[in-house]
Structure formats: structure tokens, C-alpha cells
């Protein structure tokens, strides 16, 4: 077995590989850029080597710098993680020349299957059903428009070397095909150093289901069931689960056997994933093969008990697979939510900055299941603008799907993240969405269910009253604390009342509280009562309460006359007032936000790539105004209505903070 492995990656996946290597008694070498000198993977590894400036195309994807690090460290093998150089045949070839083991497939398989154009041709020759498209390389935007018309809109514009949603655009007309081609080409060049683009038909209402395969160098190959990855945003997966709630055993077997046959046809070894589009009739079509470890591999590990990273290392060491297809079972259900540094209230635009609070739920048993959190950050660390915005992958396992969802809900409610915008409220909302709970979703789920973007969660009255009851009980604890403050004037004893008005989500709930040693009974004006118990004292940021014996986890911040409480994706300003205070509060005027309707504000910290208009120019609704790049993604900002540009405050190349004014309108 190898003595030392270099991990040619960063962040969460580097930390993940280190954990398994440590378990196997293998030393690890981290590489890092200037931006990652204090990163978690650098701290966890046995040694670390600096490889250059923050941009990935000057550090993590520069083959010569990785090869130098291998020489310095004496590493015998390299694990590439995902992204960066993981599907780069030239890197695999460089390792082969240096007689260093690549913990991944051979370069021939990477070339055959890692390139999406070549892989589709091979799949067609092997008799695999594929989505209609143009397999040749496309030179310019005019040719892209011509091909798109031949295929028929909508079309998917894709980077040949792409992955992780980078370099992908859906075009519904000529203008979008033209813009999408250029943006995909730019993103592909920046992220992968390869700007080749191809186009295929975009299948509407599809499910995205993928098969995990594992092959050794001795002719053995197995599939480890499937993962449902249909909940995506901007072609990037957000929620994954295993198994799929849609597949039947016959379809699973057919997809699995076809995937293994395809892998064997190209001499594939190591772990890999064959992705399919599946329609409502369970017809499946080959999409692509990812010749690497997938981001969402933990859900497969949780239902099979197979450590995929360990298997990759053993295969790279020349060992035959120790498990057969008959050994692979489906044990329970696993769900993964990707926690991203993206602000769901700003159309999921990237958010960067310092993690002033980062406290994930404890890994291990929770309720009926188990929690696992794969991460590469820590409290006090920074989310950089240079890399993928993923903070963590929160996974839960339980015997059944509904139990796994419930464990996930409680884990999300317990996950504390502050300092940046993040998508915790959104994924919490998905876990409660009826369509997700039913398992009846497609890749259009987010676009269909949140057409105007995510605007937060509105709790139903039953859940709202449970939160109100908990808030009333917590307020009583805080009031008692305030009566015990020393140094108060004599004859001015503060008494804690029993009558309160709880205001939240635009509703007033008059309540009375009867407290005892174990908790409080909160009675509402309609006569209903809720028993509240729990462990919370003022200053605690997390309240673990029970209301009528049912668990309720609340993130807590103190505000004037109450709390800011967050639960199940809802962000609630909760005021607790005496009846007289509530009466007066209703007379207070509401403060209105400033009018920004005539301003184009920068929606995220980023770099101005291009300004599309000039001062004095009339613009139309939907017209492109400028392009902002952040976290390797290009975002085109468009006019919301017809108007005239009166002033442009920035130029291409400027770095902007969130809400900086880009341009003004008459």
C-alpha cells in the first residue's frame, strides 16, 4: 500500500480524502494557494506545499506546479478529488511518466469518457440511447445559433471539459444561444483551461439520475445503485438522495448493467459515475460519464456501507475489488443538501466573507437516523471569491425516506452559519415542500416552484403557534433574568407578567403563561394551550425546545422587545409585548425601504467583465446591461424595464462590493 498520497485539490473534498487516508494509515500531502494558506485541508494534512496565487489557473490546475509538489513531497500517488485536474488526461499522463499512481481511471478512459463529445459518440456506437445533439466542435456564436436552430430550441450549450454546472447554459432563442455560447466558452476557459463547446437538445421535464460504478484493473466491475439528483439550480445539483424514489428494481438493474458495460468498454478502473436523463415513463438516456469521484458520493456510501475513496485507493494500488455485485445492497435512505455561500434572497448570487459563526450539527446519531457533514471550512475562516461557493455537504441517513427527511429537517435547524449569505433557508424549505416529500420532482423543480426566486418561508398557523408558544416561554425566562439584575433602585421591583402579545409573521397572538418547575403552559385567546419545555437561557444561539412533546429547534438572536427566530427555512422577527405595549405599537408608522428602482446595484461582490450600454442610451426590458463575474460564474444583469441610462459609475475590470451602484437611470 502507498505510504504517502498527495491530494491535488482543496476544500471539502481534500478534507474528505484525508479522513480515509488517515484511517488507512497513509500520510497525506496538501497543496494550497495564497488564498488557502490557513485552510482546513492544509491544517489536516501531514504536510502542505504552496503552489501559487489564488486563481485556480495559476495554482490548482497548473500541472507543472502539482508535479513539483509531488517531487518535493515524495508522494507515491495522487488523488485529484473532483473538478480542477480530476478529469485531465494530460495530468494522468504526466503522473504516468513520473511513475506516480493516479487514484482515478487510466488516461485512455479519461479521454474517451471525460470528453463529453467523444463519450457520446462511443455511447452511440455501443448502442446506448443518447440525447439528440451536435457532437462536433463549434467555432463561434454564429455557428452556435445555426446549429441550435437545426436541433430545435430549447438547447443545452455545454463545455466539453465541463462539470459542476460550469460552462453550461440553456438557450430558448437565438439571442440566448449567442450569449450562452460566449459565456460558456469564457467559463470553460477559466475553470478548466479548455474552451471547447458542444450543443444538444434540452429535454424538458427530465429527471437526473446517475449510477455509481466501481471497476478494478482485473476486469471486475460493479454498480452501487443510483442517486437522484433532479433538484438543481443553474444546472448545479443542490439536493441529492439515494436511492431514487422514482426507479423500480428493473430499471435500476438495466441502468446499472448498462453503466458497467460502458465502463468496461473503455477499460475504466476506479470509481466513476454514469449520468442519465430519465423521462416520466422510466426511459433513460445516456447524458455523460464523470470519470472521477462525485460531489454527492456520501449518499451512496451511507446506503451501501462502501467507502468509495478507500476503494479508489485500493484499485490504484492494483488490488482487485473485494466486493461483488451480490454484496451491494440498499440499506435505508440517505439525503444530501449542499450548503452554498449563496444568498437565496438575492436570486442565489454568490456571497463571500468571513464565517463569523460556523457550527454544524454534531455528526452521529440524531433522532431515528444519522448525521454526516463533509466540510472544508471552520468558524473564523473566509469564503473566497476564487473558488466554488460550497461550504459543506450535510447528509442524513435513516431506515426510510420520510425518516431521513425528518432527520435532515432537524439537522438543518441546528446548523448555525453567520457572516455570509447562504442557502440554508432554501434547502430547509425544499425539505418541507409537498412535491419533494412525494418524490415527484424533475430538474425543473426550482424553476417551477420558485419562479420569482426564493422569498422565504411562510409558516402555517399550526407551526406558527408552536413557535409563538416557544417564544413566549423563552421571553419569560429572559424577563426573570432581567429582574435579577443587581444595583437597581429600592422599591422598584420588576414583576414578570403572565399576559403577553406575541407578534410574528404579521399576526398578533395574545397569550397567557402559567409556569412551573419543568416548563410553561401557554394559552392562546382561542382557548388552545401548548406545553413548552426545553433547555434555553439568554445568550444561547440555539434553543432546543419541545412543544406538546414534539421537538422544535430555533436559531435565536436578541432584538428589541423580542427575538429573531429561524426555523424550517422561516426567518421571523418575533416581538413580545405587554397588551398595552402592543396597543401602542400598532400606532407606530412603518419605516419604508429606500427607493432603488432607478439604480442598478451590484447583487454580489464581483468583477465587472463587460459594460453593454452607454450613458444616454435607451434600454429595453430584458436588455443586457453588464456582466459580473463571481466564483467562476458569469452573471448577466438585465434591465427590468424600459429606460434611459443617465450615469455609469464603473468600468470593466472594477471590483465591486454588494449593493454598489453600477449605473443610474432617468
Global outline: globular
Question: What is the radius of gyration computed over CA atoms, rounded to a whole number of angstroms?
Answer: 27 Å
Structural class: alpha+beta
Strand residue percentage: 25-35%
Percentage of residues in helical conformation: 25-40%
Arithmetic mean pLDDT: 93
| Count of strand segments | 40
Helix count, per DSSP?
A: 17
Q: Unreliable stretches, pLDDT < 50, 5 or more residues?
A: none
Task: State the major sheet.
Answer: 9 strands, antiparallel
Q: How widely separated are the two ends?
A: 69 Å
Strand order of the largest sheet: 14-13-10-11-12-15-23-21-20
* Oligomeric state of the chains in view: single chain
Tags for this entry?
alpha+beta; single chain; 40 strands; 666 residues; nine-stranded antiparallel β-sheet; eight-stranded antiparallel barrel
Quick overview of this protein structure:
With 666 residues, this protein is of the alpha+beta class. Helix content is 27%, strand content 34%.
Describe this structure in words.
By secondary structure, this protein is an alpha+beta fold. Helix content is 27%, strand content 34%. It has 17 helices and 40 strands. The strands form nine sheets. It has a nine-stranded antiparallel sheet, with helices on both faces. Strands 25-26-27-28-29-30-31-32 form an eight-stranded antiparallel β-barrel, surrounded by four helices. Strands 3-2-1-4-5 form a five-stranded parallel sheet. A hairpin with a 2-residue loop joins β36 and β37 (633-638). α4 runs antiparallel to α5, α5 crosses α6 (116-125) and α7 crosses α8 (174-192). It is globular, with a radius of gyration of 27 Å. The relative contact order is 0.08.
Amino acid at each position: 500500500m502507498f505510504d504517502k498520497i498527495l491530494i491535488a485539490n482543496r476544500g471539502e473534498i481534500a478534507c474528505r480524502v484525508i479522513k480515509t487516508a488517515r484511517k488507512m494509515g497513509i500520510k497525506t500531502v496538501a497543496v494550497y494557494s495564497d488564498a488557502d494558506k490557513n485552510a482546513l485541508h492544509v491544517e489536516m494534512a501531514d504536510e502542505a506545499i504552496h503552489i501559487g496565487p489564488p486563481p485556480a489557473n495559476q495554482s490548482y490546475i497548473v500541472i507543472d506546479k502539482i508535479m513539483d509538489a509531488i517531487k518535493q513531497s515524495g508522494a507515491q500517488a495522487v488523488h485529484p478529488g473532483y473538478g480542477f485536474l480530476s478529469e485531465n488526461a494530460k495530468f494522468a499522463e504526466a503522473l504516468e511518466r513520473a511513475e506516480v499512481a493516479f487514484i482515478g481511471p487510466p488516461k485512455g478512459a479519461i479521454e474517451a469518457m471525460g470528453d463529453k463529445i467523444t463519450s457520446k459518440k462511443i455511447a452511440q456506437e455501443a448502442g446506448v440511447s443518447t440525447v439528440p445533439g451536435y457532437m462536433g466542435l463549434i467555432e463561434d456564436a454564429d455557428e452556435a445559433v445555426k446549429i441550435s436552430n437545426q436541433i430545435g430550441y430549447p438547447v443545452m450549450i455545454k463545455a466539453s471539459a465541463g462539470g459542476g454546472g460550469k460552462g453550461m447554459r440553456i438557450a430558448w432563442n437565438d439571442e440566448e444561444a449567442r450569449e450562452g455560447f460566449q459565456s460558456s466558452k469564457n467559463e470553460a476557459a477559466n475553470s478548466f483551461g479548455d474552451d471547447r463547446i458542444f450543443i444538444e437538445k434540452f429535454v424538458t421535464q427530465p429527471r437526473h439520475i446517475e449510477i455509481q460504478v466501481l471497476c478494478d484493473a482485473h476486469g471486475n466491475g460493479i454498480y452501487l445503485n443510483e442517486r437522484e439528483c433532479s433538484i438543481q439550480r443553474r444546472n448545479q445539483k443542490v439536493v441529492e438522495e439515494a436511492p431514487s424514489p422514482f426507479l423500480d428494481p428493473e430499471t435500476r438493474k438495466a441502468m446499472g448493467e448498462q453503466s458497467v458495460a460502458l465502463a468496461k468498454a473503455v477499460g475504466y478502473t476506479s470509481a466513476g459515475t454514469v449520468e442519465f436523463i430519465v423521462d416520466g415513463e422510466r426511459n433513460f438516456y445516456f447524458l455523460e460519464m464523470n470519470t472521477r469521484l462525485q460531489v454527492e458520493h456520501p449518499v451512496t456510501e451511507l446506503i451501501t456501507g462502501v467507502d468509495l475513496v478507500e476503494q479508489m485507493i485500493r484499485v490504484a494500488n492494483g488490488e482487485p475489488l473485494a466486493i461483488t455485485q451480490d454484496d451491494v445492497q440498499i440499506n435505508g435512505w440517505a439525503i444530501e443538501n449542499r450548503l452554498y455561500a449563496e444568498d437565496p434572497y438575492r436570486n442565489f448570487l454568490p456571497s463571500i466573507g468571513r464565517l463569523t459563526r460556523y457550527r454544524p450539527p454534531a455528526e452521529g446519531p440524531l433522532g431515528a437516523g444519522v448525521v454526516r457533514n463533509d466540510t472544508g471550512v471552520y468558524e473564523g475562516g473566509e469564503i473566497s471569491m476564487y473558488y466554488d461557493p460550497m461550504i459543506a455537504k450535510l447528509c442524513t441517513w435513516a431506515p426510510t425516506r420520510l425518516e431521513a427527511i425528518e432527520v435532515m429537517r432537524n439537522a438543518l435547524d441546528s446548523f448555525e452559519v453567520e457572516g455570509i449569505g447562504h442557502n440554508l433557508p432554501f434547502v430547509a424549505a425544499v425539505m418541507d415542500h409537498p412535491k419533494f416529500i412525494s418524490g415527484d420532482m424533475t430538474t425543473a423543480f426550482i424553476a417551477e416552484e420558485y419562479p420569482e426566486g426564493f422569498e422565504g418561508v411562510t409558516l402555517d398557523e399550526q407551526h406558527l403557534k408552536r413557535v409563538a408558544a416557544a417564544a413566549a416561554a423563552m421571553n419569560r425566562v429572559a424577563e426573570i433574568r432581567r429582574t435579577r439584575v443587581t444595583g437597581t433602585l429600592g422599591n422598584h421591583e420588576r414583576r414578570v407578567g403572565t399576559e403577553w402579545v406575541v407578534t410574528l409573521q404579521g399576526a398578533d397572538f395574545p397569550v397567557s403563561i402559567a409556569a412551573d418547575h419543568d416548563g410553561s403552559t401557554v394559552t392562546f385567546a382561542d382557548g388552545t394551550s401548548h406545553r413548552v419545555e426545553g433547555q434555553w437561557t439568554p445568550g444561547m444561539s440555539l434553543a432546543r425546545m419541545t412543544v406538546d412533546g414534539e421537538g422544535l429547534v430555533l436559531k435565536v438572536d436578541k432584538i428589541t422587545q423580542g427575538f429573531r427566530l429561524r426555523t424550517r427555512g422561516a426567518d421571523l422577527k418575533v416581538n413580545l409585548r405587554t397588551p398595552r405595549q402592543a396597543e401602542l405599537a400598532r400606532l407606530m408608522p412603518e419605516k419604508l425601504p429606500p427607493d432603488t428602482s432607478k439604480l442598478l446595484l451590484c447583487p454580489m461582490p464581483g468583477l465587472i467583465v463587460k459594460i453593454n450600454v452607454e450613458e444616454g442610451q435607451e434600454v429595453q426590458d430584458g436588455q443586457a446591461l453588464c456582466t459580473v463575474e463571481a466564483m467562476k460564474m458569469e452573471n448577466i444583469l438585465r434591465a427590468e424595464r424600459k429606460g434611459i441610462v443617465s450615469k455609469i459609475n464603473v468600468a470593466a475590470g472594477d471590483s465591486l462590493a454588494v449593493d454598489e451602484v453600477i449605473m443610474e437611470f432617468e
